[in-house]
Amino acid sequence: MASRLQHAAAGNQSRSAPDDRTGSDRDKGITSLNGRCVPAGSGHKVRTQPCPAPCPMVCLNPGAVGGSNKDVRTKILYIMGSGRSGSTLLDTVLSDQPGMFGAGELCNLLSAMDVRHNYCACGRRSAECPLWLAVRAEWSRSAVTDVAREYPALQRRVERIRNYPRHRGSTSESFTERYLELTRALFAAIANVSGATTIVDSSKGPVRALALSRMHDVDLRVIHLVRDVRGVAYSTGKRFASDPKGGIMSALNGKSSTRTAANWMLVNAVANRVRARLGERATLVRYEDFVTRPAQILRRLSEFSEVDFAATAEKLERGRGFKAGHTIEGNRLRMHDRIELRPDIRWREHMSKTKQSLLPLLTAPVAWGYGYHPR
Ligand SMILES: [Zn+2]
């Protein structure tokens, strides 16, 4: 709460926003800026220095978006890999410091707001979240188009895994150029509204990573996150009842292990190629290493990304929890009030020994390269 009030105070130095909080609001840690209330814990990052003018918090009022950091080259930390690999966890940890914004699965922004009507990590419906409303307004305004009508079709032609060959050459078709133009505008809108200089996008798709690498005016770093296929299969095999506010919009039937293994191998095989093509702009992280030696992995990611994660590493070593901010889409974990870093290795106890041996064999061409061998 102290940090939030510090932020509001800093913002008020640069732009006077009426403080219409009631005494009880203050007690609850609710900050009101331009008449919009922002509950404590909604995820706005702690700022250790005065906000740029105008304060990005003011930009929560759609239509009042300022260009707070238009001159700063935006950095994108992109998390690539298959589903259930811990990308939401990594997104939340990496974005837990000033100057960072954790977007979650940004590729699903429009469907989350317009189709699925799911909940943002701040607890509001994504279509009612002031931050995403402001981003959407800024994005449409700068792109001079109805993004909801144009962007999804472009995504289908560019980001799908079957579109990998489209990105082989240095030339690109006109729709790819248009996709890049609108994507660039989206990241700029997020940077302007949030005030962040680094955006974490955990969309995961490897072909989207390759497409983003073609935006020459952003600093893209790709983290290829892999998890043992047995852990992934155990996770996808579970059933979940519908719990919209808990991050599950509709009931999930468990998937078969073989189907999960096939998808895991395809996605990671393509991700391996993308990582090889990106060279020093991409790195490999194993989920198992991250959750057991997080400080060590964060030090490596600091060097890789040129973002200092020392404070976050210290927080992890002290056993502190994390809270996602405005993660738009991702694992249900993002809705938790407190996220802790704990290895999820339940598959070792609950998965049959036969399956534990078979899955690494089925995926051997890829899995063994990461050190995932039969037990
Ligand atoms: Zn939100």
The distinct ligands, each listed once, are: zinc ion
Instruction: Give the amount of beta strand, in percent.
Output: 5-15%
The backbone outline, from C-alpha atoms, is: globular
Poorly predicted regions: 1-68
Give the C-alpha Rg.
21 Å
Query: In CATH, what is the homologous superfamily of the largest domain?
Result: P-loop containing nucleotide triphosphate hydrolases
Main β sheet profile: 5 strands, parallel
Q: Give the CA-CA distance, first to last residue.
A: 48 Å
Q: Give the overall average pLDDT.
A: 80
Instruction: Bin the helical content.
Output: 40-55%
Discrete helix count: 16
Largest sheet, spatial ordering of strands: 4-5-3-6-7
Assign the CATH class of the largest domain. Answer: Alpha Beta
Extended strand count: 7
State the domain count.
Answer: 2
> What's the architecture of the largest domain, going by CATH?
3-Layer(aba) Sandwich
Word description of this protein:
- The chain is α/β, with parallel strands linked by helices.
- Helix content is 43%, strand content 10%.
- The strands form 2 sheets. A 5-stranded parallel sheet has the order 4-5-3-6-7, with helices on both faces.
- A hairpin with a 2-residue loop joins strand 1 (31-33) and strand 2.
- Helix 8 runs parallel beside helix 10 and helix 9 (229-236) packs across helix 10 (257-278).
- It is globular, with a radius of gyration of 21 Å.
- Residues 120, 122, 124, 129, 131-132, 326 line the site of zinc ion.
